[in-house]
Amino acid sequence: MRELFAVLERGGVIGGSSAGATIQGSYLVRGAPEGNRIMMAPGHEEGFGFLRDAAIDQHVNTRGRAEDLRPVLQKHRRLLGIALDEATALIVRGDVCAIVGAGTARFFAAPEAPALELVTGARYDLAARRALP
Fold this sequence. Notes:
The protein has helices at residues 2-9, 19-22, 60-63, 70-75, and strands at 25-27, 51-57, 80-84, 88-93, 96-101, 105-108, 116-118, 123-125, 130-132. It is an alpha+beta fold. β4 (88-93) and β5 (96-101) form a beta hairpin.
């Protein structure tokens, strides 16, 4: 972990897909040993924290998961929810991310807020929780 954070501090790149994307948030969804349908599993909720105060879900379009983050965000109100479609990624520099790929990235700024759906080329301010021009 220390070395991965050091890579980021040097401006390097880390990445992951599927569970490798999810674990990059500070809150780990779908970490239950019993299966990936369980969103919150006590003892299995800590992600790596490369994206602070964030919970990241994946395979959203192919598995019908567009709203699955809501219960997590209702319980942990400080979290930013990020839901990624297949073949979609975020490139993060500081507090700004750019969406790349074939699908949509959905951002949930608050549990009751509608998801903001962004596609390739769009940018999002993770700290301010808003889309950028």
